[in-house]
Amino acid sequence: MTSLNHSITFIVDDDPFVGLLYKKHLSNLGYNNLHHFFSGVECLDNLHLNPDIVLLDHQMSEVNGFEVLKKIKRSNPNATVIMVSGQEDMATALNALKYGAFDYIIKDGTETEKIEEALKRLAMLKSQRPATKSLFRKLLP
């Protein structure tokens, strides 16, 4: 499985406790290039760092998570954005996926485990890509 531990990872949440919780959890998983931003504006101001992974809160002041998500995907289409929200609304989750989020996780007390599972899926997908490309090269003249 491909390691994502050296990926540039943004944590975007206006709640300092939540940001610290995610940062500590990811650090315990071996992630070491973590940046916590307290607003969508702060995140957008730092897109020049080219994040690989973004944990993005949906409900933030100044600019909402959807607007940040759209701007991240325009700036860096390969960035993997995992939207984390307290909203259990199906339309919100579907919109997040429509705008390019890799996953939509509900803040229900188990979100750190769900984030970990999403990152495992991401690592598995990334490890399969080179094999798929190699297979296509062999099949195509």
Automatic annotation (TrEMBL):
Keywords: Phosphoprotein
InterPro entries listed in its UniProt record: Bact_response_regulator, CheY-like_superfamily, Sig_transdc_resp-reg_receiver
A Pfam family it matches: Response_reg
Modified residues (4-aspartylphosphate): 57
Gene3D superfamilies: 3.40.50.2300
Listed GO biological process terms: phosphorelay signal transduction system
Domain Response regulatory: residue ranges: 8-122
PANTHER family documented for this protein: RESPONSE REGULATORY DOMAIN-CONTAINING PROTEIN, STRESS RESPONSE REGULATOR PROTEIN 1
Protein's name according to its UniProt entry: Response regulator
Originating species: Neolewinella aurantiaca
Organism classification: Bacteria, Pseudomonadati, Bacteroidota, Saprospiria, Saprospirales
